[in-house]
Design a protein that fits this description.
The protein has 239 residues and is of the alpha+beta class. The chain is built from eight helices and ten strands. 22% of the residues are buried.
Length: 239
Amino acid sequence: MPPQSQGGSSTQSTLLDSYDGCINVIMDNCRREQPTDATYRPDLPPEPTYGTYFEPLEMPYREPQFLPLPPTALQFFQTFVPEPLVVRWVDYTNKAAEIADFHVVPFLLHKLPDASYHVFLDNLFSSPKLFTALRDEGHGATGTARINCGIFKQLVEAKIRDNKGQCWRWNELRAYATVDNKINQIGWKDTALVLLLSTVFTGKEFERYIQRRPTSTTKTAKPIQDAFGNKAVKEMTIP
């Protein structure tokens, strides 16, 4: 996550404070990811309404920075997993594991140099609530989403229908702003219907891409099979 622009140190402390203040609410709307671990993810009902026009957060462009990796695996481990952290892992405390929910996102941002960042997430912690809080502190966010993260109801229903084989056209994209217009809620039909959230992307950003014909024969993959026809490889435009 390369820094986008310089900012003050108060950004991260404010973000962390804002999450600490609503920890009880957050835990009431989360559920354990697996029975044997302490990771919790959002568990929210679909949002019945949507906004009028998504207002993307402008993230200033900066050249990417490429830094050399440590030459050995041990040095790599020592660089990115500090010894004090390992000591904490192996130190038996006779206490239950700390709850891991989407507090870890602002926590990790707090560890980075002071700046505004564009954060990319998978669907474990993604939710409109998290993305709104990140945006309010000057951070962009983009990630895949689950149907129980509080995303727009029509996208949830479309995902459920897609799993039953009632699919959109392949490469079809639909976008809906949240009620406050701060987050873009996107559905995009690939082999399966993908749900996404973003405070940065409008859904109109496309790339030319060469893709092989997928081998999947599931109901959800039928639209992409039809689009390829007899071609083994196809050049296409995707978001």
